[in-house]
């Protein structure tokens, strides 16, 4: 509808002197006469009460209708109690309708009130703004005209209140507009509220079936006098200026007439005004019997004085209404203007327009006015002399509609702007009236948390509602014709009468299966409930009977060893569970629901906890060597455990009861056929439940968890002798409880697939059957085989001693493990230890060695525990050498899985023999532990061992000598200090007839004799160490790199499959690349010239790879559909051809690395491993980590992860490029820095413009290799098509070039890009897009990731740092001795490392931390870097001297004279000075 402020039938009534706030009365009979109505007519406090207030429209006017209307929130609080209305039987959410402020909308509102609240039981209130009311059922018969909600704020407030407008404030001083429905809106003028549709607040407006019109009108008598006035043709142009000015004069307010035109100032009646106006009448244009109105000539009408500017008058809307008279008349050259005083465009208020039309009719004065229909004023003059006659303007076109002004233009202070474009000067066309419905109506009415049978029909009924303009006109006529209470009951009566007479039409608005009525059913009448009820009672009786039998047999052996308390508690639990099942199927009441939950929960606690305690005690005793004794629970400990657990369960139940009390709930089931009254029956059944089902799930979950743990322990106890303990029966009953707990959990998880009432019955049945199973499986057999009574002297199980006199204890430590683990992910570390320790356990089982525990990377075992054995020293020695051999072989085999340096891991073992105390420590997490000197000395011997060495104490050695195994031993020459025990003599077990000792030693046996003695059969492991060649290590590294790249290739293919939407799409590349092969077999669309740029795919040709470095590399945008569709990479297979080429490529790359001490293939593999670790540490925000696994949505998490990590994690091609770059970044490295390399190879320097020569050469050689014809399948697997190839090349170039740490210009550029990416926006002028910002961050993060990986040894464990630092020193020292470097590195090494940490490593670590995507890894890098720097400051000079000595010795063996240059360690370091800006790079190589 148009934006109208005060469209008021009340204005018309004021004019007609029929203003009655409500019909006055003394007796009820006065109201019958005054309202012309008989039923429910009452006189209340001198005013007639609305008959419809009691019962509603149909209750009062439709014969045979006996249903009261449904109460709503604006009814008095006692309305239901007094019988005025009834509560909604289906408890539907209240709908609030904005009546708006014109009569046809009132009718629509009231029809919907009748439809919803009387026929469909939906509460409906009416929004009429603060202090106003036009509700159909308003007891005071008010008919107020509220202000129109121009912006639709009320319907938006409904969304903010969650759809419940009852929450809105009704305080007049703080009134909050709120409603769900606008029953009638005009299409033209509603543009101001279209944003509500765009924002998803309302549904798309739908037509109601009525047509509305707004035109320029003149009275019929004016058209009869001059027919030319009904068309713009007779109005337009200079030729009609005088006619317009003289015909249409200016209307005059009552005040102006009295003060300026009346001779007596209206003190004497003069035929126009009978009196002066009252204060509230001064702006009236007409009042019946008070002021006839007056149309006067003004200077604007005087064409004699103003021939070029004179004009006539038109009564126009205020500018807030969607009318366009200034635009139309200006461009059609019609000389008429509106002269209202309170509007920028000269418009009049609604009341004044009504009065102007009446004044014209009363005085027979010509008037031209803007008006609309359907509307009461229009309807009241149909068939009269003043009937509205449409003035025709040019026919409307779409171009004209599009050119019309919006609110801002119509109400502009600038008159030129108000005229608008000429294209908008056309007539108005009929419009379809529409309804606007909040989306909250559907959301609340069809709430998924509410049973479908209880869904509200409001939304569908509102959608079905239609009303034609003829039907509206009929109601308007009926209203005006009635003439009893025009401003109160008459319009309500007209609406109700229309509904009663057209009930067949109104019924079509009712949705299918509505209206509905409820019928309550008794659940205990069904067969299922009756059967479960009886079964529960029988089971409870059986359990009580078993309790009596247990008491009678309490002194028998079986009951004694089980403890009668154990059986009593379990039987009490069974009784409570059975009674709980009985209550569930009985009469459902509030108290029984709470009692059932408490009894079942505590009952299961008393059943499961005793079973868990007993089976755990059996396992502990068996594990500690007590399997030959009966298990008897301590009474007080047992009761305290049960009591403590019961208290915890009770606390949970108390919280449950207080927060969400289990109570009677109703289940609703919709029937298929209506009852005789035409209502669809909703069958209602009662059950016990809480608002949140999670309480029941948690309750069953803890029971399931306890049963599961008990079942695991029962399985572990399967080896216990049944003739001594009851493990087997316990296991059976525990498994039975586990199965029933699983079934009960399944019942809860079935959700909507099973009715709540049926679920309650089935749950009760399961509980009864579970109790019955416990009786049959455990209680009854136990009581049946209880045996004779205990004698007073019978053994009651004494404790075994925990002192073991003859034992050998082994400590085996993985040497170098801490450093190895520091560069790997925790998952890899744990999987590695699981593999090693699992293999150790298998050997221990074969050797009958008792595993005590593992502590980190230390394995502890014992022989002589728990079973005594004489050969404990021999068995432990054999076990130790088996471990050593296994570790040597497995570490090399596992290097393929866990990467560089895995093959170098080895054991160091210490063995000592003697007495030991062993047993279970009481308390939480009890486990078997060793105490005493024997274990302590074994640990210290292990610590003092070298890599790959087994050391034994003199005590153990003597035992081996006594067993004629002296040939196994090699005595150490030196005495070894053992903390707290002084210097000790130690022996080593030999390896291949040779041993590794601190100071040497002599083997006393040959290899064959040792091997024959150690081996008991050909299946046993042997202690053989195989010397490994460098080629074997390189092969393992090649296989590991292939595996790493293969895994990422699978991710790439998984993404590609998801993007294509096919199960097995064809890749975009179908033939080989042109470079490096026969062009006849080449795919020219993927032609790339290695090392010099891309041809045929780019408009730019670059001279060098360095020229191709970009500030921003675009990463793919996140595609939620692809993420949702993507398969797990483990399910993807890569074609064999591509895999073969991958192996060939990695092998070739390995061969292209030179045999440098540092810049070699092992270094590349170490960088690959560090790169993988960094990428694996790229994590999602903390809130993602809190997502419950059961509710985790993969593709949503992927979207959040993509945004948080700038797209790096969601693009496997980017990840492959990073690893690929790490692998190739030092290919063909010459072993000297770039400046020296350029001197040695001027042609290479010229080729690459004396910039990053080594890095560009590495890239070019690797790219040439990749672009060969026989690498086609590999390229296809990586890139897929040309687009992927170009992006892959760009990523690799940026990454490889980033490893040049010595180029100051590159460093400066990278720092600038980092600042631009991560500095606050206000620190620089930013013109880039949001996408550019993200891609810039991704690009710079990738480069820093590669940089960090390239120098990762400085940010890892001290031993790793020392290893690679020594290799780099060796390489630079070799260059010095070969004359390829001017300085001995020892001269600057100590200070240089400190500078490298301060100006490069630590700032780089901080950057990784600042960018926020590396999670814990960033802190780890910084912590290691800081720690290594501290250690270097304290140990660096000594380390440097040691490295120099080793290098001198190596060169001495080559026959070269030692260097004459003094070392820094000897003469003091040359202080490192950072002469340039601290942000400039520092590189030892440069």
Looking at this protein, list some descriptive labels:
single chain, 1486 residues, alpha+beta, eight-stranded mixed sheet, 26 strands, 47% helix, flat, disordered C terminus
Structural class: alpha+beta
Our estimate of the beta-strand percent is: 5-15%
The description of the largest β-sheet is: 8 strands, mixed
Mean of all residue-level pLDDT scores: 80
Count of helical regions: 52
Separation of the first and last Cα atoms? 79 Å
The total count of strands amounts to: 26
Description:
The structure is a single chain. The protein is α+β, with helices and mostly antiparallel strands. It is 47% helix and 10% strand. The chain is built from 52 helices and 26 strands. The strands form 8 sheets. Strands 17, 18, 19, 20, 21, 22, 23 and 26 form an 8-stranded mixed sheet that branches. A hairpin with a 3-residue loop joins strand 24 and strand 25. Helix 35 packs across helix 37, helix 38 runs antiparallel to helix 41 and helix 50 runs antiparallel to helix 51. The longest helix has 39 residues. The two termini are 79 Å apart. The N terminus and C terminus are likely disordered.
């Amino acid at each position: 509808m148009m934006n109208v402020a005060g469209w008021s039938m009340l204005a018309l009534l004021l004019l007609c002197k029929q203003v009655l706030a409500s019909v006055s009365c003394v007796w009820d009979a006065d109201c019958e006469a005054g309202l012309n109505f008989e039923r429910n007519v009452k006189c209340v406090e001198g005013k007639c009460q609305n008959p419809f207030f009691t019962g509603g429209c149909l209750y009062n006017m439709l014969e045979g209708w006996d249903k009261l209307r449904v109460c709503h929130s604006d009814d008095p609080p006692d309305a239901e109690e007094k019988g005025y209305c009834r509560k909604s039987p289906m408890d539907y959410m209240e709908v609030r309708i904005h009546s708006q402020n014109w009569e046809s909308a009132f009718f629509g509102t009231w029809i919907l009130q009748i439809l919803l609240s009387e026929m469909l039981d939906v509460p409906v209130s009416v929004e009429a703004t603060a202090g106003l009311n036009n509700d159909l059922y308003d007891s005071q018969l008010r008919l107020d005209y509220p202000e129109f909600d121009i912006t639709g704020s009320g319907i938006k407030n409904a969304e903010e209140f969650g759809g419940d407008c009852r929450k809105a404030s009704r305080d007049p001083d703080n009134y909050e507009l709120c409603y769900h429905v606008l029953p009638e809106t005009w299409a033209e003028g509603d543009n101001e509220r279209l944003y509500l549709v765009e924002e998803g607040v309302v549904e798309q407006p739908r037509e109601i079936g009525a047509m509305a019109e707004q035109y320029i009108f003149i009275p019929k008598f004016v058209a009869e006098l001059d027919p030319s006035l009904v068309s713009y043709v007779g109005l337009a142009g200079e030729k009609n200026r005088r006619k317009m000015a003289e015909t249409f004069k200016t209307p005059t307010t009552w005040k102006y007439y009295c003060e300026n035109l009346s001779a007596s100032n209206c003190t004497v009646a003069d035929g126009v005004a009978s009196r002066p106006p009252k204060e509230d009448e001064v702006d009236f244009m007409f009042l019946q019997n008070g002021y006839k109105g007056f149309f006067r000539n003004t200077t604007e009408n005087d064409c004699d004085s103003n021939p070029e500017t004179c004009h006539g008058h038109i009564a126009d809307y205020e500018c807030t209404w969607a009318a366009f008279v200034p635009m139309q008349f200006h461009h059609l050259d019609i000389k008429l203007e509106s002269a209202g005083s309170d509007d920028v465009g000269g418009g009049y208020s609604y009341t004044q327009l009504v009065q102007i039309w009446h004044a014209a009719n009363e005085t027979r004065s010509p008037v031209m006015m803007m008006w609309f229909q359907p509307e009461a004023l229009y309807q009241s003059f149909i068939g009269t002399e003043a009937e509205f006659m449409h003035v025709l303007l040019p026919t409307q076109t779409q171009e004209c509609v599009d050119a019309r002004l919006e609110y801002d233009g119509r109400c502009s202070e600038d008159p030129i702007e108000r005229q608008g474009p000429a294209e908008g000067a056309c007539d108005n066309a009929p419009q379809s009236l529409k309804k606007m419905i909040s989306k909250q109506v559907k959301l609340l009415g069809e709430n998924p948390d509410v049973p479908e049978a209880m869904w509200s029909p409001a939304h569908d009924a509102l959608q079905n509602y239609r009303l034609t303009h003829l039907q509206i006109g009929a109601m308007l006529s009926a209203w005006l014709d009635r003439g009893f209470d025009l401003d109160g009951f008459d319009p309500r009566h007209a609406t109700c009468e229309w509904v009663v007479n057209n009930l067949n039409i109104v019924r079509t608005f009712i949705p299918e299966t509505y209206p509905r009525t409820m019928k309550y059913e008794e659940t205990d009448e069904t067969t299922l409930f009756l059967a479960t009820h009886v079964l529960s009672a029988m089971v409870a009786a059986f359990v009580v009977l078993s309790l009596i039998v247990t008491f009678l047999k309490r002194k028998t052996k079986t009951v004694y060893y089980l403890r009668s308390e154990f059986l009593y508690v379990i039987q009490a639990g069974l009784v409570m569970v059975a009674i709980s099942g009985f209550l569930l199927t009985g009469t459902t009441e509030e108290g029984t629901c709470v009692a059932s939950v408490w009894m079942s929960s505590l009952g299961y606690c008393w059943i499961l906890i005793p079973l868990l305690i007993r089976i755990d005690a059996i396992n502990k005793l068996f594990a500690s060597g007590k399997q030959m004794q009966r298990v008897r629970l301590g009474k007080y400990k047992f009761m305290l455990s049960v009591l403590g657990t019961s208290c915890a369960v009770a606390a949970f139940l108390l919280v449950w009861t207080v927060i969400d009390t289990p109570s009677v709930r109703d289940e609703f089931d919709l029937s298929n056929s209506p009852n005789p009254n035409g209502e669809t029956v909703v069958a209602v059944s009662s059950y016990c439940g809480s608002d949140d089902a999670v309480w029941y799930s948690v309750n069953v979950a803890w029971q399931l968890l306890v049963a599961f743990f008990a079942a695991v322990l029962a399985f572990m106890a399967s080896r216990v002798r049944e003739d001594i303990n009851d493990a087997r029966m316990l296991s059976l009953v525990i498994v039975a409880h586990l199965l029933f707990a699983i079934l009960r959990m399944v019942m809860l998880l079935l959700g909507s697939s099973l009715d709540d009432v049926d679920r309650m019955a089935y749950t009760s049945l399961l509980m009864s059957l579970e109790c019955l199973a416990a009786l049959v499986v455990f209680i009854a057999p136990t009581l049946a085989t209880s045996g004779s009574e205990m004698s007073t002297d019978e053994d009651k199980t004494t404790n075994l001693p925990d002192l073991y006199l003859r034992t050998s204890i082994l400590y085996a430590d993985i040497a170098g493990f801490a450093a190895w683990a520091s560069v790997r992910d925790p998952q890899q570390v744990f999987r590695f230890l699981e593999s090693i320790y699992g293999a150790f356990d298998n050997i221990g089982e074969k050797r009958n060695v008792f595993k005590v525990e593992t502590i980190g990377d230390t394995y502890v075992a014992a022989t002589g525990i728990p079973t005594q054995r004489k050969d404990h020293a021999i068995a432990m020695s054999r076990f130790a050498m088996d471990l050593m051999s296994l570790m040597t072989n497995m570490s090399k085999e596992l290097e393929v899985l866990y990467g560089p340096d895995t093959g170098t891991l080895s054991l160091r073992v210490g063995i000592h023999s003697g007495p030991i105390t062993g047993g279970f420590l009481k308390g939480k997490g009890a486990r078997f532990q060793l105490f005493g000197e024997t274990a302590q000395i074994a640990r210290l011997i292990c610590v003092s061992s070298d890599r790959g060495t087994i050391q034994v104490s003199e005590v153990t050695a003597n035992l081996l000598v006594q067993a004629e195994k002296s040939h196994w031993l090699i005595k150490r020459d030196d005495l070894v200090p053992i903390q707290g025990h002084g210097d000790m003599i130690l022996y080593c077990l030999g390896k291949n007839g040779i041993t590794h000792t601190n100071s040497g030693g002599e083997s006393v046996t040959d290899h064959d004799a040792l091997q024959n003695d150690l081996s008991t059969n050909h299946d046993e492991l042997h202690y053989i160490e195989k010397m490994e060649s460098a080629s074997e290590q390189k092969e393992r590294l090649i296989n590991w790199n292939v595996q790493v790249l293969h895994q990422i290739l699978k991710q790439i293919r998984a993404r590609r499959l998801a993007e294509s939407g096919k199960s097995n799409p064809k890749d975009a590349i179908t033939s080989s690349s042109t470079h490096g092969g026969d062009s006849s077999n080449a795919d020219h669309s993927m032609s790339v010239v290695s090392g010099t740029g891309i041809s045929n795919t780019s408009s730019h040709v670059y001279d060098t790879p360095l020229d191709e470095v970009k500030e921003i590399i675009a990463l793919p945008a996140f595609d939620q559909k692809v993420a949702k569709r993507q398969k797990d990479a483990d399910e993807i297979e890569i074609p064999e051809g591509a895999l073969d080429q991958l192996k060939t490529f990695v092998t070739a790359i390995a061969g292209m690395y030179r045999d440098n001490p540092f810049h070699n293939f092992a270094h590349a593999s170490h960088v690959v491993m560090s790169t993988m670790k960094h990428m694996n540490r790229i994590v999602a925000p903390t809130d993602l980590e809190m997502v419950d696994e059961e509710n985790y949505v993969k593709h949503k998490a992927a979207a959040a992860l993509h945004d948080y990590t700038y797209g790096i994690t969601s693009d496997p091609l980017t990840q492959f490029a990073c690893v690929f770059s790490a692998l190739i970044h030092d290919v063909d490295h010459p072993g000297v820095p770039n400046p020296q390399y350029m001197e040695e190879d001027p042609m290479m320097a010229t080729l690459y413009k004396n910039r990053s020569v080594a890095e560009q050469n590495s890239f070019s050689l690797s790219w040439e290799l990749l672009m060969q014809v026989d690498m086609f399948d590999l390229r296809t697997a990586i890139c897929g098509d040309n687009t992927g190839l170009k992006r892959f090349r760009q990523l690799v170039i940026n990454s490889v070039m980033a490893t040049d740490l010595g180029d100051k210009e590159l460093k400066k550029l990278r720092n600038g890009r980092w600042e631009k990416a991560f500095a606050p926006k206000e620190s620089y002028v930013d013109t880039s897009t949001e996408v550019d910002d993200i891609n810039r961050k991704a690009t710079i993060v990738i480069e820093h990731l590669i940089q960090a990986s390239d120098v990762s040894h400085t940010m890892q464990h001290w031993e790793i740092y020392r290893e690679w630092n020594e290799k780099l020193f060796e390489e630079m020292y070799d260059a010095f001795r070969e004359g390829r470097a001017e300085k001995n590195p020892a001269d600057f090494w100590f200070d240089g490392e400190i500078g490298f940490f301060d100006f490069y490593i630590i700032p780089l670590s901080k950057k990784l931390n600042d960018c926020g995507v590396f999670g814990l890894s960033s802190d780890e890098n910084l912590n290691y870097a800081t720690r290594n720097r501290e250690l270097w400051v304290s140990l660096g000079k000594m380390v440097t001297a040691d490295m120099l000595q080793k290098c001198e010795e190596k060169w001495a063996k080559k026959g070269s004279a030692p260097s004459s240059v003094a070392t820094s360690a000897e003469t003091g370091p040359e202080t490192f000075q950072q002469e340039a800006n601290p942000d400039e790079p520092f590189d030892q190589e440069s």
